[in-house]
Amino acid sequence: MSERTPAQEPTPAPARIDWIENSTPRSALWRSESGWPAPTRVVPGDDTMTAAVALRLASAGTAILWTDDFQNAKQLLGAMGRRLTGSRAPRNDTMRAAFARSREDALRRAAILGMLLVPIDAEGTIPLRRSPDIRSATIHAWGVSTDASVVSLRELLGVLGAEEWRTTGVDVPALGARIHPHYGVFAPVRGEYLDLVATTPLPADAVTAFDIGTGTGVLSAILARRGIRSITATDLDPRALACARENLDRLGFADAAAMIKADLFPDGRADLIVCNPPWIPATPKVSTDYAVYDEDGRMLAGFLSGLADHLTPGGEGWLVISDIAERLGLRSRGDLLDAIDDAGLTVIARMDTRPTHTRAADRSDPLHAARSAEVTSLWRLGAA
């Protein structure tokens, strides 16, 4: 019997969730962009349920399918979250251990709060009192569906928040315009790295650029505004490529940038190659982690090792990265410099800036010592 090739593998059936309602077995499509499995124990919940009871059920792995007022479900979710506490830090805890514990706490919190569920009917509406119109948001996030489904309220609120960002956009002072993120595409909310790309001197006579891992296309837009006439933006995520295309078209840069689905580099060479990889070399635990965590530093290593072969003579690679991994004890500065040297690259210059995000000033954050000292850098790299 011959083995199947990947192309021959059957498409897995969509996950479903089953429960009993009024003594009647029910079933619906299970939705989880984060990759959480469908709960196997489900009980109904209504306005009489207290936060203490809901938290006890959720902590034990029992999901609560809400059947009452939608706004009250949101209030219950908030009350559950306020009751959840993180693990206690031991004395003389290292920053690396604090990071690991912080991730475990965040994952546990997400798993528990994700147990409060809401139904969505086949028409794409929530059949609960005082529920919002979610149809535009869910179509943008999941596409058109004619199946009834169940989703975590916490995840649905994320979908609705993403739709608001898509509609209103994120102001980017370095661009002098707004960028409109799509659902599932990392939003450019940290302006300091964008300022670096907007102000660092361009290589002499640069006319071509690659934007590796383009996301929303914000870096391509900044380069186009600075006069780069031919930009190739790459990403593996179709959502990101569609988002970048829409943003560049909206900003009037449709002719300046091409979108290509690629793992890191496209074919050819460019005068300037820009990459802002995920800054933390750690294993993603859920799908939404991939914008933040770069497992084993794969994207960073791939960018550095392939950079020299894709630069034109005299061209530059711009690596935009924070030193937060160094401050968390996950990578040393020596590791980064060794990787640059091993790739046949030389450091032309480094532009530094300090983050201004609110978490850097939050002393209650267990990682405050690292975040408050963090430096974001643009490394100008050339072929040795």
From TrEMBL:
GO terms assigned for molecular function: nucleic acid binding; protein-glutamine N-methyltransferase activity
UniProt key word Transferase: yes
InterPro entries, per database record: DNA_methylase_N6_adenine_CS (IPR002052), N5-glutamine_MTase (IPR050320), SAM-dependent_MTases_sf (IPR029063), Small_mtfrase_dom (IPR007848)
GO BP term (any one): methylation
Keywords: Methyltransferase, Transferase
Gene3D superfamilies linked: Vaccinia Virus protein VP39
Alphabetized PROSITE patterns for the sequence: N6_MTASE
Residues covered by the Methyltransferase small domain: 203-322
Name of the protein in question: Class I SAM-dependent methyltransferase
Organism: Mycetocola manganoxydans
